[in-house]
Amino acid sequence: MASKLPDLLWAQRVPHVYLTIDLPNVTASTAKIELTEDSMHFVGNGGIDQSKYEVTVNFLKSIDIEKSSHAIKPRNVIFFLVKKEEEWWPRLAKEGKARNIKVDWNNWKEEDEADEDEQPPSDFDMSQFGGMDGMDFSGMGGMGGMGGMGDMSGLGDMGGMGGMGGMGGMGGMGEPDDEDDDDDDIPDLEAGEGEKEGDEIKEEKKPEEEEEAKEEPKSE
C-alpha cells in the first residue's frame, strides 16, 4: 500500500523555523524521523485509520542540527529548526513550491514584525523539547526563567494582605469616636455639678426663709 503525503505547515523568524507535520495520532513507537543539516524525512502511521504517511523536505538553507529538535504531540509533529545563518528564507524547500507545504498563518510574522525577545508560539511549547541534546533554552526569550515564578513563594508575605482583614481592626478607629463621646459628656457633668451647687445654695437659704417667716407676725 502506497504511503500518503502529509501536509506541512511552516513559519519562521530570522533565527529559526517552526515546522509542523499536520498529522494527528502519530504512533511514536513506529514513527521514524531523520533530521540532518539539509533535510527532514518522516515516515510513520497516523490519522484516524492509522495509515502510513511519508514525507521528505530538502531545506532551502542549512540548519544547526545540534540546536534543532522535534517532538511528537497528539495532534501533530513539531520541529524547532535553528538556522545556521540568521537570515530570512523566501521559502522552506530548496525545490520550490510544493502542494503539501503551506504557510502556518497562526504563527507567521513578517520579517519586520518579528521581535527578537518574543517567546515561541504556544503550539511550540518548549517543554516538549526537554532533555534534547544541544537545545539551548537560554536563547529562548527567557522562557526557562518563567519557572522562576516559583520564587513568588516569597510573596507568601502577601498572605499578610489577609491581615488587611485586620483593617477590621480599624474598627478601633471608633476609639476616637468614644473619646468624642466623652467630650460630649463633659457639659452634662458640669450641669450636674451646677445642680448640686444650686441645691447647696437652696439649702443655705432655707434657714433665712424660716427667720423671715418668724419675723412676719411681729410686724403686725
Helicity level? 10-25%
CATH class group of the largest domain: Mainly Beta
Fraction of residues in β-strands: 15-25%
Strand order of the largest sheet: 6-7-2-1-8
CATH topology of the largest domain: Immunoglobulin-like
CATH architecture of the largest domain: Sandwich
Rg, Cα atoms, Å:
45 Å
**Most strands sheet:** 5 strands, mixed
Number of helices: 1
Q: Structural class, please?
A: alpha+beta
The dominant shape is globular
| Average pLDDT taken over every residue | 72
Q: Give the total of beta strands.
A: 8
What is the domain tally? 2
Compute the separation of the termini in Å: 154 Å
Keywords, separated by commas or semicolons:
three-stranded antiparallel β-sheet; 220 residues; five-stranded mixed β-sheet; 2 domains; 8 strands; alpha+beta; Immunoglobulin-like
Outline:
With 220 residues, the protein is α+β, with helices and mostly antiparallel strands.
Task: Please describe what this structure looks like.
There is one protein chain. By secondary structure, the chain is α+β, with helices and mostly antiparallel strands. The protein has two domains: 7-146, Immunoglobulin-like; 180-212. It contains one helix and eight strands. The protein has one helix at residues 174-219; strands at residues 7-12, 16-22, 32-35, 39-46, 51-58, 69-72, 77-82, 101-103. The chain has a five-stranded mixed sheet with strand order 6-7-2-1-8, with no helix packed on it. A three-stranded antiparallel sheet has the order 3-4-5, with no helix packed on it. The longest helix has 46 residues, at 174-219. It is globular.
